Amino acid sequence: HFKYFSPGTVHVAVVDPGVGTARKALACYWQEHYFIAPDNGLLDFCAEDGLYSAMHLTRREYWRAEISNTFHGRDIFAPVAAHLAAGVPFSHLGIPIQLTPRLRARKCGVEGDTLIGEIVHSDRFGNLIANISKAEFENFVGKSSFAIRLKECNLTAITSSYGDAAPGELVALFNSFDRLELGLVQGDARTSLAVAPGASIIIKRGS
Amino acid sequence: HFKYFSPGTVHVAVVDPGVGTARKALACYWQEHYFIAPDNGLLDFCAEDGLYSAMHLTRREYWRAEISNTFHGRDIFAPVAAHLAAGVPFSHLGIPIQLTPRLRARKCGVEGDTLIGEIVHSDRFGNLIANISKAEFENFVGKSSFAIRLKECNLTAITSSYGDAAPGELVALFNSFDRLELGLVQGDARTSLAVAPGASIIIKRGS
Amino acid sequence: HFKYFSPGTVHVAVVDPGVGTARKALACYWQEHYFIAPDNGLLDFCAEDGLYSAMHLTRREYWRAEISNTFHGRDIFAPVAAHLAAGVPFSHLGIPIQLTPRLRARKCGVEGDTLIGEIVHSDRFGNLIANISKAEFENFVGKSSFAIRLKECNLTAITSSYGDAAPGELVALFNSFDRLELGLVQGDARTSLAVAPGASIIIKRGS
Question: Which residues of A touch B184 (CB under 8 A)?
Fold first, then answer.
């Protein structure tokens, strides 16, 4: 997560299936960090609060001399990042621009006594991470009892760490980024439960 | 690709199934870069134009004190590279030697109105890279129409980028190293076409 | 292996299924290197000769301000290592402590004319590494003939390198860490022999 890096760090992200087409190359300054990425939704998170500066990268003098159609990470993003890290002012990189969020925001939402979220990621251990933050969960649940439902599974407690449960046990906990995470202790929840990112996770509030 | 590194960079390559046997350890200076590798064909590319200097690495004072039979990368190649990077002159590393190409050159060749090449690599996305450069292709095809044949597939156009084609479409393009590459947009051509490195790729020239 | 790093290097190891529970965080100084790890057996090797200093990491001023239950590598071990590398004296990190070995020591042992060891690791090539050192082997075998038995396989010679045997041949050699290693030349012994770490390996001494 970017916040563990020093302020002023330049982050480059090039997940870019549209490389070589007309999508713009962008740089963004947000929360004291720089982000350089294609305009395909990767920088949506900077746009949420509106407190950012963004540049359309148009100044070719900060690019590689030859630009391929398939590797802008090498030809545009990395050279711009290197110039920025070496002291070229952000404002020199191109033309100021507004970010336009590109992807469907995956928010969790409350409907009556139900909080509906989504599994958005599974890590390399097969743990399943939901788009529900600790604050959202605690705000919703308050002092009530609760049930966390994922497919046929039903959990009624938050565990503080994987080490506090027995091997093979399914647990829900808040991970080190304060997101709700479901995991099988010393196992692979993704495979065992056959749950992939995109699955719904539902919190029911009791009395 | 080495040319994206600064002149004077020391590159170490130790793909070395013959480690511990009599094959020589080499250093080569070519196109302003240093290459250190076993004498098993890894440095063939430096020998193509003859404009290189090479050394048989014989000066044990630049090696680790103890030499194993199974890890010359640690015991010889890396220490020699470190000494070279630290300022030891190239000429001190051993005895001047001529490179002898070790591997079958995988060239593409023209037969009448056919250019025959080979898939030499598939990347981690399953894209298939041929040993046909953009220059060779354009020189052969000129202003004619053409057909690119790989197994049962037949392509009659070069696409400029993956993003210019629809998901699932098979495309041919020149990649960021100017080599002919066949790929399935947002898919895995290697698996889908069941084509592995070594397969023939044929360019037919039309009228 | 740590001995290829400079004296004074700080090594951090966080294989830590018990993260978030009561196991201690430790730092150890042994053989001129620093090791930082959870108290779960990772540092057993430092305890073998007793010539170490160890600290229970208790000084929170060298930790991240917020401590999660699932990522002490980020929150405790890495920050402590950074402070140590930056000059904080080892003795400031916490409270002196004795190491208590946590894991079953996997030693090889002699019974009459048999030396019994164990496969303790297989590398990414599928080579099988035993817990038998070159010194232990030579001390046991002396000038006798010998047979190395692993499952149905029987080897009666030590090969000096993989390159000295034919592709597909099963060989025993002393690897670059001077441990007995069994491998299939240009193949995968682990898969071909269906042998995993934990398997017994037996050396019989002849006449």
Answer: none
Do C118 and C161 sit in the same domain of this protein? yes
Residue B57, domain member (yes or no)? yes
Judged by CB atoms closer than 8 Å, whether chains meet at C19 and A175 is answered as: no
The pairing of beta strand B10-12 with beta strand B33-38: parallel
A137 lies in the same domain as A192: yes
Give the CATH number of the domain where residue B177 resides. Answer: 2.40.30.90
Question: Chains near A, with 3+ CB pairs < 8 A?
Answer: B, C
- Name the token pair of C149: 């038995």
**Do the Cβ atoms of C70 and A162 come within 8 Å?**
yes
Q: Which domain holds residue A140?
A: 109-205
Same domain, A92 and A125: no
Residue pLDDT, tens place only, B134-154? 999 999 999 999 999 999 999
Please report the ipTM that was assigned to this predicted complex. 0.77
Are A118 and A48 found together in one domain?
Answer: no
Distance from CA of B69 to the nearest CA of C (A): 6
Reported as a pLDDT band with limits 50, 70 and 90, residue B19 is confident
B vs C, Cβ pairs < 8 A, gives 35
* pLDDT higher than 80, residue A104: no
C115 pLDDT higher than 90: yes
What is the overall mean pLDDT for chain C? 93
**Residue C116 token pair:** 């019994």
Instruction: Please name the member of C4, C161, C186 whose beta carbon is closest to the beta carbon of B70.
Output: C161
Nearest CB to C17; choose among A4, A162, A173: A162
**3-state class of A195 per DSSP?**
coil
Q: Which residues, other chains included, contact C73 with Cβ-Cβ below 8 Å and sequence gap of 6+? A: C12, C14, C16, C19
Asked if residue C122 is part of any domain, the answer here is yes
Which amino acid would we find at residue A56?
A: H
- Is C101 part of a structural domain of the chain? no
All residues of chain C having their beta carbon less than 8 Å from the beta carbon of residue B19 are: 161-163
Has residue A104 been placed in a domain? no
> What does DSSP say about strands B52-57 and B94-96: parallel, antiparallel, or unpaired?
antiparallel
**DSSP letters of A8-56?**
T-EEE----TTTTSSPPEEEEEETTEEEEEESSSTTHHHHSSS-EEEEE
A197 to each of A109, A188, B100, C91, how far by Cα in Å?
17, 14, 53, 46
Q: Do B13 and B76 lie in a common domain?
A: yes
What is the model's pLDDT at position B8?
95
CA distances from C110 to A81, A103, A203, C107, C137 (A): 60, 65, 59, 10, 10
Selected residues 73-112 of chain B with any CB under 8 Å from a CB in chain C: 74-75
Among B174, B181, B186, whose Cβ lies nearest the Cβ of A17?
B186
Q: Do residue A163 and residue C17 have CB atoms under 8 angstroms apart?
A: yes
- Residue A90 shares a structural domain with residue A120: no
* End-of-domain residue from the set B96, B122, B152: B96
C207: pLDDT confidence band, cut at 50, 70 and 90? low
Q: In terms of domains, do C76 and C6 share one? A: yes
Pair C122, C180 in one domain: yes
Instruction: Name the domain boundary from C42, C63, C96.
Output: C96
The pLDDT tens digits for C162-204 are 989 999 999 999 999 999 999 999 999 999 999 989 999 999 9
pLDDT (tens digit, 9 = 90+) per residue, B31-67? 999 999 999 999 999 998 889 999 999 999 999 998 9
Chain B residues with CB-CB distance to C181 below 8 A:
70
Question: How many domains, in total, are found in chain B?
Answer: 2
Task: Kindly state whether A162 is in contact with chain C, defined as any CB-CB distance less than 8 angstroms.
Answer: yes
Q: What is the pLDDT of residue B207?
A: 64
